[in-house]
Write a structure and sequence with these properties.
Blueprint: H1 2-12, H2 15-47, H3 49-55, H4 60-74, H5 77-89, H6 95-108, H7 111-117, H8 124-154, H9 166-177, H10 189-208, H11 212-236, H12 240-254, H13 258-272, H14 275-287, H15 293-306, H16 308-317, H17 321-341, H18 346-361, H19 364-389
Length: 392
């Protein structure tokens, strides 16, 4: 009886009520991402493991896989990229190593959307769309690294290269042509509006324990719990009348063609200073059917362009030649990502749809993908490099 009454209430609830509740859950969704980030960054600052991990060694595979792991944990490529550029500006990390680390950050940022998609795992059709959306961000990033990483590594050994790969040489050339004035990093509007909730959760964690590391762990766990609750609330209010209204807005304005979808991805990511926010937000929206999957792909490519702005801002705040070179290489990498995969979009789109169909029938495949890309491959890669490159 209670279930039927709940269903009836959802059907009879006025449009504006669905909209208000959806905005409320969207706010908590954004808060949850920043809460998790705040907790994990607290752990990182206390243990200093982030800086140590990235700056450890000059082997490209170590830089790549370490950045994948770090970005997967902190769920922010913007944070990792800014940290990499700051280390380069401080002289603690070479430019060549930093370029490979930036590639790893591009892969690691995909995990947020993949985790978010798991919130719809109980509803097969919705999960298939949501997981396909997350894969349309992850697959191109992985494939681009598989293509450009070997090219960058191999060209370091060419005669006259001075140990510089092709991406690094182009970036250095552009750095000589472009002048950057020192600047300051602007505040993210998302961080500003979610700060009260983030601070409240941190206060709760500090009340529970005085240990800084334990506080970070508690904050991160609370953030994860809020994330899944917000997802359930957001998706439930994107259905029905609100869904039909939003479909018109998205299809006729923001996502009426590939170009508008691409531009929306660029400027929305620049506006909030986080591709993790924009790409993961698209997951429940596309999962609910508000945005068609064929428009999701150019949006994700646009997000990859938009996220490079954070690195550019970090470089202008630390205007050394090395920092600017790394920021430019990040821009070039994602421009290459767009140039390669938009003409060949049928490849990542079909892969995403095929694997999402497989995962919707057997959700264990979603976990297998996560573990393979973000845990097994990095760990195995780090082990191999330690054995074959650093063994005495």
């Amino acid at each position: 009886m209670s279930i039927s009454k709940t269903t009836e209430n959802l059907k009879t609830r006025p449009f504006w009520a669905h909209g208000v509740l959806a905005l409320m859950w969207l706010y908590f969704f954004l808060c949850a991402i920043n809460i998790m980030g705040a907790g994990l960054k607290t752990i990182g600052k206390e243990t200093d493991w982030l800086q140590v991990a990235i700056a450890q060694g000059d082997n490209p595979l170590i830089a790549l896989f370490t950045a994948v792991l770090i970005t997967s944990i902190v769920q922010s490529s913007s944070f990792t990229t800014s940290l990499i550029i700051t280390l380069v500006a401080a002289g603690e990390l070479s430019v060549g190593t930093a370029i490979f680390a930036v590639m790893g950050a591009n892969i690691g940022t995909s995990i947020t959307g993949l985790i978010v998609s798991l919130g719809a795992v109980r509803i097969r059709k919705q999960f298939r769309r949501a997981y396909a959306t997350a894969l349309m961000h992850a697959i191109p990033n992985v494939l681009t690294v598989l293509m450009l990483f070997p090219l960058e590594w191999a060209t370091r050994s060419l005669p006259g290269s001075n140990g510089h790969g092709v991406l690094m040489r182009i970036s250095m050339w552009l750095t000589e042509l472009i002048g950057f004035e020192p600047g300051t990093k602007p505040n993210s509007p998302i961080k500003a509006i979610t700060k009260p909730v983030v601070e409240f959760v941190k206060d709760i964690a500090e009340w529970m324990t005085s240990n800084v590391t334990a506080t970070g762990v508690i904050v991160a766990i609370l953030g994860l719990l809020i994330l899944f609750m917000a997802l359930l609330g957001l998706v439930s209010n994107l259905r029905g009348a609100l869904l039909r209204r939003l479909e018109g807005l998205f299809s006729k304005v923001l996502f009426r063609n590939d170009f508008f979808a691409w531009i929306s991805g660029i400027f929305s990511t620049i506006a909030v200073q986080s591709s993790s926010v924009t790409t993961s937000l698209m997951v429940p929206i596309a999962g609910a059917g508000v945005v068609k999957l064929r428009r999701v792909f150019p949006f994700m490519l646009g997000c990859n362009i938009g996220t490079t702005m954070t690195g550019v801002i970090a470089a202008t705040a630390n205007p050394t030649a090395g920092a600017v070179t790394v920021a430019i290489s990040h821009v070039l990498f994602n421009l290459g990502d767009n140039a390669i995969w938009y003409p060949l979009k049928i490849v990542p789109i079909r892969l995403a749809k095929w694997y999402s169909g497989l995962a919707s029938r057997a959700p264990r495949y979603a976990l297998i993908f996560l573990l393979t890309i973000f845990v097994i491959c990095p760990v195995v890669g780090l082990f191999i490099t330690e054995v074959f490159f650093y063994s005495d």
